[in-house]
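quick one, 252 residues, struct below
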Amino acid sequence: MAKPIMAKATAVWLVDNTTLSFKQIADFVGMHELEIQGIADGDVATGVKGFDPIANNQLTQEEIDAAQKSPLHKLKLKFNAAAVGEEKRRGPRYTPLSKRQDRPASILWLVKFHPELSDGQVGKLVGTTKPTIQAIRERTHWNIANIQPIDPVALGLCKQSELDLAVQKAAAKKAAEGGVMSDDERRKLVSTEQSLGMEAEPKIPSAIEGLETFSLNETPDDEEDDLNKGDFSDADSFFNLPGGEDSSDEQP
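---
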């Protein structure tokens, strides 16, 4: 149920100018019945000036008269035709003054780890302008040397769900365009929750890339079998000297 503006001041006026019950006034202004009784006793809202709900187009005299005649009647806020269909004003996200200095760090994080996000998406996430985003993308920002990338969710500039939704939209757009993505790009395009759930793929050092079928520590089975076949108990058999026995027989 909609509540009147300046509820406590309205309650003061109703207590002073009507014979409505404490419960009727409490239900209308959204306060506790004991608070209304405290206003009547002078213990609550001392010094608060009453706010006339009739003069301020919140109640009609007929509504008050009906409620005074019937203790069970609940006061209803006057219908305001001007408020019908009122939409929330659209505009850039408001960023508190204490967090505005953190926006460049969050922009750098987004353009570094999610380059697929458009300038418009980045602007909506952290509440900034396209020229600032472009300056950080091109590294022409006046303070670029001192900016460190920081997750905007950790800074409180946006929610994790908002970031995931923006990444998913970028993924859908990328897929619709039919662009070929690398493994790193594909990982970036999924949501943060999905990315954290992925198992890390083992990476092969570039120095031995292409030699992964060979073992560095174990001897192949075929070579091991050939080594086991030979009898190396005798030095001559080990070195396999040619004609060793014949040459000893020919000597006088």
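DSSP finds 14 helices and no strands in the chain.
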